[in-house]
């Protein structure tokens, strides 16, 4: 079974983890940094991020963790964060889209979107779009499997009765606090699927030599070496309309460690 301690050296690799100051995101930052990665900790509060980094460096004095200010309820803030990242780094090996809120009352952001959808999905989608050139450049220079995007979802879309994406504002407003969480988590799954279709191992981008991004959706690394039985299992999973992408510390399993 996968354990964070089984990660190999991540020296020379750069990661960005949203919502990195606490919870799953914090553990992810900690374990990536402990294995030598440079980690950008996406956070909306510089105070909380600084305290979290101090905690990491108490245990791992050599840890290279930096704050990237990023507030998901402001798309301007997302654009600014992407710009800041690109001004500092030419490569990005792992983009971990983790920040999230759950079951909050209905509210609309200043950008005009329901707050859970914007925090959990739209801000991540925009961040990914802005960082795609860096991810693809990393994939081209470092090879297949070197650039990965992890869309942290959950069972929320199943648990809270989400059957399909809802686009009508009125319907979304009446769908319940948990239902809206489920919608945003379905969007996370669909983002991974779309990224895989557009940039995954069998995509036109990959075949054309323009770069390949792994999302974990196809488990391409397993596909390359698996037995016929495993391949059959993978094929069944691929036909499922949506599945949770990764959860908890399994996030790290998807880190680009090749
Ligand atoms: N925990 C679980 O059992 C579980 C299960 C399934 C899926 N997940 C998913 O895993 C992810 C992390 O969950 P968690 O339990 O670790 O959550 P958490 O402990 O509540 O941490 C959430 C992180 O997201 C950040 N965040 C919230 N709103 C933000 C905003 N507007 N801008 C920037 N950052 C913001 C928080 O920052 P602040 O500290 O500033 O609030 C925090 O760093 C979520 O996507 C969640 O849906 C969790």
UniProtKB/TrEMBL annotation:
<dbReference type="InterPro" id="IPR036291">
    <property type="entry name" value="NAD(P)-bd_dom_sf"/>
</dbReference>
<dbReference type="InterPro" id="IPR002347">
    <property type="entry name" value="SDR_fam"/>
</dbReference>
<keyword id="KW-0560">Oxidoreductase</keyword>
<protein>
    <submittedName>
        <fullName>Oxidoreductase</fullName>
    </submittedName>
</protein>
<dbReference type="Pfam" id="PF00106">
    <property type="entry name" value="adh_short"/>
</dbReference>
<keyword id="KW-0521">NADP</keyword>
<comment type="similarity">
    <text>Belongs to the short-chain dehydrogenases/reductases (SDR) family.</text>
</comment>
<dbReference type="GO" id="GO:0016491">
    <property type="term" value="F:oxidoreductase activity"/>
</dbReference>
